[in-house]
Amino acid sequence: MTARPVLQQADIDRALTRIAHEILESVDRQGSDRGDSALILLGIPTRGVLLAERLAARLESLAPGSASVGSLDVTMHRDDLRSQPTRSPSPTRIPAGGIDGATVVLVDDVLYSGRTIRAALDALTALGRPKAVRLAVLIDRGHRELPIRPDFVGKNLPSSITERVNVRLIETDGDDLVEIAEGER
């Protein structure tokens, strides 16, 4: 299977910085006419959690105290449990104040069919009622099966259904790289 790089470390850093600015602008617009609320970034395991932590660090440098970070496991809310290999659930970590009344930004690495995000919305409603839910993804590759659209995107990457988008992050893979591979999905 041949793979070609699409984003290098500097590209990923720029995309995350831009997304952090866009999140702050969105929250500022929202807050000015609806009152202030907490901002919570919830990463979807595995790489979405790492990206949420990176975004939270950028938000902290731009506006200290502006965001909390956690993780949201969606395993038991997926609609493909029977057809996929067994997965072990990851811990869900919600900031101490909970999500009620907060603006929650779900963070994931790649948006494809939309099914993971649908599962995340189901998992989120089991935890409380946020004021608003937004979606931030590093890569939007299209091919949606559900009416889900990201609010914040690092890169739109049109791809064939037979291609695979691989996101590598230094914390788990030793380097930061997004590549698209020919072959099986």
Give a verbal description of the structure.
- This protein has 185 residues and is an alpha/beta fold.
- It has one domain (3-24, 37-78, 93-181): Rossmann fold, CATH 3.40.50.
- The chain is 31% helix and 25% strand.
- It has four helices and eight strands, in the order βαβαββαβββαβ.
- It has helices spanning 9-34, 47-62, 115-125, 170-173, and strands at 3-7, 39-43, 68-71, 103-111, 132-140, 152-156, 164-168, 177-181.
- A five-stranded parallel beta sheet has the order 3-2-4-5-6, sandwiched between helices.
- The longest helix has 26 residues, at 9-34.
- The chain is globular and about 45 Å long.
- The model has no long low-confidence stretch (mean pLDDT 91).
Task: Give me the secondary-structure topology.
Blueprint: E1 3-7, H1 9-34, E2 39-43, H2 47-62, E3 68-71, E4 103-111, H3 115-125, E5 132-140, E6 152-156, E7 164-168, H4 170-173, E8 177-181
Parallel strand pairs: 2-3, 2-4, 4-5, 5-6
Antiparallel strand pairs: 1-8, 7-8
The CATH architecture assignment turns out to be: 3-Layer(aba) Sandwich
* Secondary structure tally: strands: 8
Largest sheet: 5 strands, parallel
Gap from first CA to last CA: 11 Å
Shape: globular
Mean pLDDT across the residues is 91
| Domain unit count | 1
CATH class, named: Alpha Beta
SSE arrangement, N to C: EHEHEEHEEEHE
* Helix coverage percent: 25-40%
The parts where pLDDT drops under 50 for at least 5 residues are: none
CATH topology: Rossmann fold
Gyration radius, rounded:
16 Å
Find the structural class using helix and strand composition. alpha/beta
Sheet-strand content, in percent, reads 25-35%
**Quaternary arrangement of the chains shown?**
single chain
